[in-house]
Amino acid sequence: MPVVTVDTARISYRVVGEGPETLVLVHGTGPGSGMWDHLLASFTDRYTVLLPDLSGSETAEDDGARLTVETLAAQVNAVIEDAGRGPVHLVGFSLGAVVATAAAARRPEQVRRLVAAAGWINAEDEYLRNMMTVWAALAGDPATFGRYATLTAFSGGFLNRIGREAVEANAAFMRPTPGTLRHIALDLDLDITALLPRVQAPTLVIGCTQDATVPVANARRLHAAIADSEYAEFDTGHVVLFEQPEAFTTAVLDFLTVAPAAA
What we know:
Low-confidence stretches: none
Mean pLDDT: 96
CATH topology: Rossmann fold
Number of strands: 8
Strand content: 15-25%
């Protein structure tokens, strides 16, 4: 597995598929890039997919310092450069949407198209700020921490559809590791307002109507702040890529494969 050193961090990334164009998938708060694994078959027939595990994920190595969005964006930019396959298509989910947007703003020459799903600009939203604060405060009770994450990540209808066994498995998945708590602290601190005018890549912003982690108004604000961006909204909870994986991948692929406008 390739590893790139960025300041004090050693960031590994997986390379899956052998397509002619490159797609980078940026994970959100939590363990890391494994959140994308159930979607890979939809992408690897046409793209070479890069899956970085950024600081705070289970496999990243760094000094444990407080994270910034600039730190994680620099790691994404370094992975793209290390792989030597740019410019790439860049897709991020949740915190990954924010990081991917920042990476596209910092190095516009690296990015063909950008997709930001269930992202936000900053924690001015009082619901978002309180949700993240309560989640972090539950760190002393790992079971409740995971159950709260499940409750806010998915819509009620989806939880009832998958049933109790799957719900319990989801609740057991998210644990208050030091890295995840660093991600939550970043969720509360970040602000990419100043970077948004620098995004040059054609952008698709995705919002989730029933999102109880990052209310959909935040995705709508992000869309409004990125010039000429497109917007799609799914009637799901926060984790749209699990609630509606086929519709999500179709929307992403349709956007990525649009022919560029004639000069």
